[in-house]
Amino acid sequence: MAADLAADLTAQQLTEKHRPTLDRALEAIRTRDYWSPHPEHPKAYGENGTVSAADGKAAFDALLGSRLDLGQPGTDDWTGGEVSPFGPELGVEYPHADIDVLLPAMRAGMAAWREAGAETRALVCLEILARISARTHEFAHAVMHTSGQAFMMAFQAGGPHAQDRGLEAVAYAYEEQTRTPKTADWSKPQGKRDPLELRKTFTPVARGIALLIGCNTFPTWNGYSGLFASLATGNPVLVKPHPRAVLPLALTVKVAREVLAEAGFDPNLVALAAERPGEGIAKTLAVHPEIKIIDYTGSTAFGDWLETHARQAQVYTEKAGVNTVVIDSTGDYKGMLSNLAFSLSLYSGQMCTTPQNLLIPRDGITTDAGPRTYDEVVSDLAASVAGLLGDDARANALLGALVNPDVKARLEAAAGLGEVALASREVANPEFPDAVVRTPVIVKLDGSKPDDEAAYMSECFGPVSFAVAVDSTGDAVELLRRTVRDKGAMTVGAYTTSAETERALEEVCLEESAQLSLNLTGGVYVNQTAAFSDFHGSGGNPAANAALCDGAFVSNRFRVVEVRREA
Amino acid sequence: MAADLAADLTAQQLTEKHRPTLDRALEAIRTRDYWSPHPEHPKAYGENGTVSAADGKAAFDALLGSRLDLGQPGTDDWTGGEVSPFGPELGVEYPHADIDVLLPAMRAGMAAWREAGAETRALVCLEILARISARTHEFAHAVMHTSGQAFMMAFQAGGPHAQDRGLEAVAYAYEEQTRTPKTADWSKPQGKRDPLELRKTFTPVARGIALLIGCNTFPTWNGYSGLFASLATGNPVLVKPHPRAVLPLALTVKVAREVLAEAGFDPNLVALAAERPGEGIAKTLAVHPEIKIIDYTGSTAFGDWLETHARQAQVYTEKAGVNTVVIDSTGDYKGMLSNLAFSLSLYSGQMCTTPQNLLIPRDGITTDAGPRTYDEVVSDLAASVAGLLGDDARANALLGALVNPDVKARLEAAAGLGEVALASREVANPEFPDAVVRTPVIVKLDGSKPDDEAAYMSECFGPVSFAVAVDSTGDAVELLRRTVRDKGAMTVGAYTTSAETERALEEVCLEESAQLSLNLTGGVYVNQTAAFSDFHGSGGNPAANAALCDGAFVSNRFRVVEVRREA
């Protein structure tokens, strides 16, 4: 700690409170069993220092129309303008930063943060996460009204699941930094002469200021891994949120700054860079010589731009891919249909992990309910989706709102790409009449037609799925390979009862570095990954150059400096 | 193993022979104490299956004028032309590869190599290293007559120390791949309902073909970390040696191919890409879409080119830096002088770790032998170097030969940059009359003169040191900071008796990510690092983007593919 005696949060308090959690997280990333310290159920909050549903909603409401002052140096203006995908303007104002003032201020606390060491940094990060966790209800509303996720999804994915990813990154960062001991005594025998003896010290050192470029759809879930990986390895973090999803990350920055200050560190180790409409500061910041690490989730175009131009930084990107499900055969046709229907519907397909292309042999598939033709599979799936979303209340709870007009435009255009097997329908939202809520469209395409290929080989982000007729399962496997290789994929799903086909699918995924979910028919969906156990992306295909979370995600965020002296 | 029953080397044999060594290496990289399984003394060879000095020399002699057939697919010609820096033409011919044939052949064995798993891959790598170790005498002559290192240095640095670096990389690679279990059972409670249960498998998968671009001065020492890190993580490795230092890496490839075949794997997992004079295939290979990893040691210009253009690959570079020694004060003046004299002389300063700039306050320093002026320090150091190299036999044993005419040209030009405190002298080598052997030159420069700054702020690779007069130790520390930040450094040395100065030096090295050796006066030198304990470079300043060896050096050479199924 920088100044234990003066700090409100002592090292001892942090250790008592969080060291067991850190140890359990370290165990979880090794065993990859199920674990989370962050309750998933909204009713679990309101006791033991956590904020109840009502108080969380009240806290969110109090933020609306307010100015969120973070006390940052170099604040030269105030900016805002978020409008909820559910309709209301949020009206929150955020500090706008003079970067030439803010960046040097962020560097000022680096030495003390370095000297604190890997364990204290980890424990401070855990305190930040614990305080965010306590306020999960408030964060859930913030995520809901910036991403368009329905409340329960915003609560879980934006709350505990995001916090899990942050904690997972802290655990990896801690483990990586402590692979090398702090000191070593080195004694090399020299035969009859005295041994050569050195005393060595090893210190993990930060790379410099890290930039987190947040996304619109999952501001916390996709942001926390990079934020906490960088902070835990000693780097100050500048958070540049998506202009339409500032609030969840601004609240995160606020909590981080409070905890850092209470623990005796410089709060400027974490800061917000909100921007004016159209300012486009990500490009400017990304090539700034002080920025040494970048975490980014978003479009392939800008991700590729970052990888090409931000040469002074370590760049971790999650971009777009084309996710495929191969449908060869199934022993649980009903389960398959309901599982897929849920996957296509959740958050209106606005997940980087939502399946887009469903590859189905044109001669049909075998199932436990007898053979099904291509047309039957598609119409049965359409019926399953329609059934799942037939009730408006349930549809609203699953779909949320379209995050922006681009998604709506793509959805409308998709209907013109081929025969529509399931038309998208408008769902009325009585609570938020201005929300744009749409069910998914399923379009039939022919895998061997070049015009159709142009459609299914491009990412169509949103509630759009293509039922692609292929000549055989073998063709499906090869199309899967080509899709992953050329376009990338965050997820691959497959249904088959054939051991041979299963092996062929595994082989493609191993060779092309894609994460495969096989025969999911129950309550786990291809588009969901669990921290501590599942990797999100592989980092080995064009969809992303990094995976959440592994050694590679943390190991180059710091370097180890050795000082050696004769003993 | 791919085909245990058919293989000459079974998994059981490999485990019995090498698993204890792997375990000890894993312990060493955690404790960073002194350890090596590779004997440093030439006399230690000749028993227990190792090759004696005489037999090793005979094996080397038998290679001269021969054609080294590796049995590689796509061999379309033969090429060679190495001339020893000590004079003789080697006359060895190597296969020239048709890359369009060789690269696909290298991919053919990848699936079996992946399926073998991390442990078997590690054990096969250890067998390769063990066979190289047994033939250390032969490799020593090969390194000597391609690098110009004197025999003892070629023996130690090119033999056991290089093998140590290879083994260290294997240990890191093994540890990194086994951080994630092969399988996991995941069970998520669902309250009163049945838990969600998944069976998950995790497989480390290669990125693709790795390219090792070898260097002239340390073909094995600088090559083995990358070669073995890539191979142990499942990647085929194409070895592109420096055209003047092919033999040590060609022999390495030959051994690797033999072991792979004996263990039942495809020998084409390791192959050589020797080139015709002036062919420049590194540039072609580096941007080839099949090349996914590049390890490079050499000039900053080409290293920067690789980092900029080889965007399809993970690029690990060791480039050039400007190494500094700050001389503030010492409690062992004699020891300091003799230690520095050795560091400047070893291999005629042709190490990426040799100090170039000696920063000395112009008002002099304090020592245990009383105060010494700047002029006195410089002349005392000159006398120490002259004394160390006064005897021709000893000089030859320390200096070796200049590796190429460029080094000689730089050495000669350096004498015109300032006042010469110690002139370089020609040393006759009775055994190799054509060898170009030169003692180091020490040139006095003024830290505050812009013309001098142009000299000392550029890397002058070879036996050239600048004694730079600075206004104060504080100025030296700031010049050190600027040098590391702008030019990079593989090493920093310093002599001081002041705790405050020591702290300031450490702070600069921590902030600029440089490896610091303090007050070395005995038998350890700033330009030497020991595998398993010392990091070579930091990867955090412009001299190199990677360090030998750490988690970051191995963690992105593979990805983990997860397959999950309902349990």
Automatic annotation (TrEMBL), chains A, B:
Residues of the Aldehyde dehydrogenase domain: 97-482
Domain of life: Bacteria
Keywords on record: NAD, Oxidoreductase
Keyword NAD tagged: yes
PANTHER family the record matches: DELTA-1-PYRROLINE-5-CARBOXYLATE DEHYDROGENASE 1, ISOFORM A-RELATED, DELTA-1-PYRROLINE-5-CARBOXYLATE DEHYDROGENASE 2, ISOFORM A-RELATED
Name of the protein in question: Phenylacetic acid degradation protein PaaN
Organism of this sequence: Streptomyces sannanensis
Lineage of origin: Bacteria, Bacillati, Actinomycetota, Actinomycetes, Kitasatosporales
